[in-house]
Amino acid sequence: MSASRYNNCYLQQVRILLIILLSNLLSTAVFAQVNDSQLASFYLQQGDYDKAVLYYQKLYEKQALHTYYEFYLKSLYALENLDEAKSLIKKQQKTYPSEKAYDLDLADYFVKVKDEKKAEKILNKIVNELSPRFASIQNTADLFVKRAKPAYALRVYQKGRKILPAYPFNMEIAKLQGELGNTSEMVAEYLDLLEINPAYLQSVQNALNQSLGFEKGSKENLSLKAELYKRIQRYPSKEFYNELLIWILTQEKDFEGVYRQSISLDKRKNENGYRLLDLSVLAKNNQDFDLATMSLDYVIQKGKDEALYIDAKVLLLQVLYAKVKSSATYTEADLERLETEYVGTLDELGRNPRTVHVIKELAEIQGVYQKQYVEANKNLNATLKIPGISAQSIAELKLLMADLKLLQSDPWEASLLYMQVEKSFKYDRLGEIAKFRNARIYYFEGEFDLAKAMLDVLKGSTSKKISNDAMELSLLITDNSTIDTTTKPLEIFAKSDLYFLKSQFDESISLLDSLEEKYPGHALSDEILFLRSKIAAQKSDFEAQEKYLEEIVSSFPDDILADNALYGLAVLNDKQKNDPKKAAEYYKRLLLEYKDSLFVVEARKRFRELRGDELN
Question: What is the number of other CB atoms lying within 10 angstroms of the CB of residue 412?
């Protein structure tokens, strides 16, 4: 082998050895660094700051990463090594001179050492040296927000508005003003944003929904409405102010205010009354039936040629009827107007398959509420003869005929009609309704074994409500008609239940009183309380209703009516007593304590609405 070739081979071997040696050294260094990082993190989590400082110092000196710096600084502060902390911050500032976060760290340091003037000087300098670029303004304000300095974030946006006029930052400024408790300034910013672009109306509504509670009469709401009224008077052509006011009044459930504003806009814009139609639905759902009626009367008075005339007429019937059905406080005048409206609507629309539901409701009013059984039956029998009505309509009419027979104390004629519907719709919900009502007749008549046999079949119903009702009544019978127990208490309770169905409340209460007197502490106690609560609700005695429901929840939390009572309390406070906070507590309690309740779906939906969640 020649000398030159030998030398080349030797050099190649040396190179390989050097590469291997360097690789091993690098691997060892990387491993050591990873290990140091893990140890530093471990000691920091354990609160062993003496050891954490050593490792983070070592890591930082090798590479001035923000993560190492942040935890190194935290450890120094924990050990009260303030001089070292200051040196570290200044070193990081020098390394990254454009990063304002480290300037804020230095300001925080001066706050720690009680030198507020130097801290304020640094913060003011950050604001004063703000660059006229959107990203810079946004990032600087975000830094102040993250450091819990909203007042300085506000100053950043206010200066940004001056040096960058294309971006007025109304939404950001309004949010910060709200956080600082400056309600008037917050409101002005949101309204000024609408001046710039009315298309932001939905965004402003969402923002106000998050920042205000919309509690009627609150300081914040009064401030908002006062400013809106001023602007509406000053700029009557800017209708977005009226739109926002209507939305706010709706959140407060101030339907009279919504009514006035809606009529004002309707007349000004020569609309067709759609706002009033929407308001009537909202008012009806909140049981403000008089306001709903006024709204619909306004639409109807526009005339028969208007597009919404028929809709308003039909909706008016529903409102007037809902008012009567909601409680026992309706008057004879309410019933007379209701009947007149139904008859008038039928005269306009005719009696045909499309108006069967209107005729049925008229018969229900005449029979159930006016006790005009002859007139009601005459209407129902005539309707059955209308050519072309569906089998389902016939079944619904027969169900009502049966209900009226029961109210006239003719239970077995009612039973025959129920059986006809059941036979025609054996595997349908209508058939199950008929079967349940027929079983209820046997319960009212004291035929508990027959009633229970029918109810047990219905426990498997595809309708959760029918299944639940059947199970509750079956359990009621089972618990109170066992072999070694007299059925007399249950017979008295069943008669009281029937009186309630007939709206003979005094007779129902009298039987309940005698039942409790003769059989104190009976297993029917929770049922008695629940029936009393239903009677109180029908009489609009909401204090008594609440008392009875609360007693069920507190005294019988494991019985089948506990979730009914809890849901009843939630709805009572939500709709009648207008106490959304208390209602939300009851809804939440139902969701937590009675997860299998029939009312869970509705309770969850309403709870989320009261909490302010955005729902699809």
Answer: 10
For residues 40 and 335, give the distance between their C-alpha atoms in angstroms, rounded to a whole number: 81
Q: Quick one: which of 72, 46, 44 has its CA closest to 58?
A: 72
**Counting Cβ atoms within 10 Å, is residue 411 exposed (0-12), middle (13-18) or buried (19+)?**
middle
d(CA 554, CA 176): 45
State the virtual CA torsion across 483, 486, 487, 489 in degrees, nearest 10. Answer: -150
**Cβ partners under 8 Å of residue 245, min gap 6:** 225, 228, 229, 232, 261
Domains and their CATH numbers in the chain? 1-97 (1.25.40), 524-611 (1.25.40.10)
Dihedral angle sign, alpha carbons of residues 143, 145, 149, 151: positive
Q: How far apart are CA 429 and CA 468, in angstroms?
A: 14
CA distances for 184 relative to 99, 222, 228, angstroms: 35, 10, 11
Distance CA 379, CA 343 (A): 11
CA distance 88 to 61: 11
DSSP percent split of the chain into helix, strand, coil, nearest 5: 80, 0, 20
Q: Is the dihedral of CA 374, 375, 376, 382 positive or negative?
A: positive
Contacts of 127 (CB under 8 A, 6+ apart): 140, 152, 155, 156, 159
pLDDT in tens, 322-349: 888 876 667 888 888 889 999 998 998 8
Q: Are 415 and 441 in contact (CB under 8 A)?
A: yes
Q: At what angle do helices 100-112 and 134-146 cross, to 10 degrees?
A: 30
Of 241, 259, 258, 240, nearest in space to 249 by CA: 258
Residue 432 pLDDT exceeds 70: yes
Query: For 230-284, how does the pLDDT look when each residue is reduced to its tens digit (9 = 90+)?
Result: 888 888 778 888 888 888 888 888 889 889 989 988 888 888 889 899 899 988 9
- Residue 82 CA to residue 563 CA, distance in Å, equals 60
Q: Which residue bears the tokens 């009298």? A: 510
Over its C-alpha atoms, the chain yields an Rg (Å, rounded) of 38
| pLDDT tens-digit readout, 498-520 | 999 998 999 999 999 999 999 99
pLDDT band for position 304 (cuts 50, 70, 90): confident
CA 224 to chain centroid, in Å, comes to 23
Question: What whole-number distance in Å separates Cα of residue 472 and Cα of residue 488?
Answer: 19
